[in-house]
């Protein structure tokens, strides 16, 4: 099992401290989000994800850095692909890119666009990811789609990595089709769902993803499966919580668990848990 740490820091001191901790402890990846504001509390500090990752990429040496997840609601696929290549260079080939359709009404409000119906959300995600995948592969040919268009593009320099890992967030069936079509990895999270409900839903989603991959002549095992411990999944609730999550979700096929940085009152549990796991 691989482990990632997701941090949405309020200050650079906090961001720098957690980056050093993640590398020292032995986490495999360091992630941040892509929100213009905190979805529930606008007074909570939020920084721009790609810019924070650039700083992490320049000040870490071993750990992968990634965006989990780039928000389709207010991102341009062309600009995001260029940012991804730049971050890959700054990190010397340690960057990973997650993409998702956005889930908060505040995303649309801040972007100045009305909420999209479910069918449009899925269609936009599909076209967005397809564009990013093409551009990162070096195909900068013109695109005129239902939602996005660009001409006279260029993708130089090429990424450091032969392929920047492309991760797609998906719970719905239509989004899983996007994963099967273009993604190197799939990320899912419980959100408001009860843990037991999410666990059984994850099994069904894995089966659906396997079937969709086979329909596209892809080996299901080539798509990495990432669990974002969020909502009802609380890895720092006690010293045994992360080992329990690891065993339970590894057994159904997950390859990686990404945990949010602990709150101040969870720091002691965090230190015990990662020590026991020897990540």
UniProtKB/TrEMBL annotation:
Assigned keywords, A-Z: Flavoprotein, FMN, Monooxygenase, Oxidoreductase
Please list the residue ranges annotated as the Luciferase-like domain.
10-227
Which protein is depicted? Luciferase-like monooxygenase
Task: Specify one Pfam family.
Answer: Bac_luciferase
